Input
Amino acid sequence: MVDWDGDRYGDVSALQRMVAEASIHGLELAGDERLLDVGCGDGFITMQLAGRLPAGSVVGVDASRRMIDNARARDPADELGVQFHVDDVLALPFDRDFDIVVSFNMLHWVHDHPAALARIARSLDTGGRAVVQIVCATERRSIEDVAMGVAATPHWQPHFEDFPAPYLHATPDQFRESATTAGMTVSGIEISDLRWQFESIDAFASWFGVGASDWTSRLPDDSASAFAHEVVERYQESIGEPATLHFGQMRVELELG
Output
């Protein structure tokens, strides 16, 4: 996973925030839990969670240093006491340090779900639980699938030699199997089919350009925007709706053992 642009992410993250906020509203918290947010991004949702844990503690981790820099800037006076660290989910250093682990729309950028969930399980104390939300497999082609198709066209293919798909959209059965391998039990799964209307095709391309760093990091700076526009134009042709994103969301509740 490449280092995402924390500044640009803040400009185009309304969709991600909407999805995560809907998920945390359904999160039962007593107020004294020790919480870990894996893939915390720029810390927007992490800080909201901290506000619900007046007697607890919150740590946010992300593999992107630029994201963590932006997250730390949200609480410069350390009023909420949230800690932010650069850490990869596959190398989390924690051992039974948390009562709850959350991760919102990050794990679909990780290929090895069993290894990631094993690290999450190791981070949880006895009786701990996790809530994970990811983009999941659907019957439609995802925008990431379209991006792989565009990357394989003659114009772009020279930039994408030996480029494996950087994402994994799991089915519920696949995720259950990964959880079992990691020593966790799935206590609940919710699948949602969501739709987001952008203001324009340019706004859609700007949003995709930030999240498509795995693709655009291989391109010259003056080509990244053209690639993003081609992807969203082909995507909207495939679904028949202008400047509209359709995506599946899988919210999974997990327990140890």
Q: What stands out?
A: Residues 97 and 245 are 38 Å apart (CA to CA). Confidence is low (pLDDT under 50) at residues 4-12. The first helix runs from residue 6 to 12. The two ends are 29 Å apart (CA to CA).
